[in-house]
Amino acid sequence: MNGRICMVTGASSGIGKAAALGLARMGATVVMVCRDESRGDAARAEIREKTGSQTVDLLIADLSSQEAIRRLAEEYRGRYDRLHVLVNNAGVYHTKRHVTVDGLEAMFAVNYLARFLLTNLLLDVLKKRAPARIINVAGAYHAKGRIDFDDLQGERDFDGQRANHQSKLADVLFTCELARRLEGTRVTVNCLHPGMVATHLVDKDKDFPKLLKLLYRLSKPLMKSPEKGAETILYLASSPEVEGVTGQYFVNKRVAQSSPESHNVQLARRLWEVSEKLIEM
Ligand SMILES: NC(=O)c1ccc[n+]([C@@H]2O[C@H](COP(=O)([O-])OP(=O)(O)OC[C@H]3O[C@@H](n4cnc5c(N)ncnc54)[C@H](OP(=O)(O)O)[C@@H]3O)[C@@H](O)[C@H]2O)c1
Prior knowledge:
Distance between the termini: 33 Å
Number of helices: 9
Largest sheet: 8 strands, mixed
Number of strands: 8
Radius of gyration: 17 Å
Bound molecules: NADP nicotinamide-adenine-dinucleotide phosphate
Helix content: 40-55%
């Protein structure tokens, strides 16, 4: 991966940090995107120390804000003129409804729409020195998801799990639709389920039921480590086996079957159009 530039969002902890570490180990220039400067600095220092790499960069952006995403893309463009790998990983889980500065439900905004906006803003730098790869960290729960166009932001009736599943289905639909739109550009886009990974995703949710949180913590030893959880990302970022492969859903470094709903072309197109309006491109 020497000479390749890779951006990883949500690189301050969990799967994103492990992916950034793995890419730095492979010799790539890594651009970490983190929302909190001190957590980002600490993660970058750890990665630099573990790898000896001098090419680990850090950009600060709260991806729940569209203005911050636009600033991030500008800042990136100010520092680099190309991008070989974009890993859309940052994500949140909320039991209760949270609203972003843009008035959107937070899981829809961070887990899906931020990726839609950031990717579209960076498409020109991705295309410039193609081949390039976009990797969306989705999840197996996309299969339980439904896109509720009548209440996309959960204003009428909110359920944390349902909103999370919807955001993950949106990631898979986005992957498939973007792959269709990128045909012939040599920019590929794939998504993945990292497995059940022992991270702090649920711990960060203050409203997560205490008993479930305890059960979750107790079952952590049975889960994958973040390093194991990042393996499919590293495979999709670097392996010659997936050169030219696009629009696929991966589990454990293999193409897997995503839900029937995720293959609905009309649905993917409608979501794209609604998303365009929500970001006012
Ligand atoms: N863990 C699993 O079992 C599992 C399963 C399926 C899918 N996933 C997906 O994997 C991805 C990574 O999750 P994880 O398990 O590694 O959780 P995590 O440790 O909580 O990592 C999430 C990352 O996203 C960042 N983030 C959250 N909100 C952000 C925002 N508004 N702006 C910028 N960055 C933000 C977090 O930053 P902070 O450090 O500042 O919080 C953190 O770096 C998520 O998309 C998640 O849905 C995880």
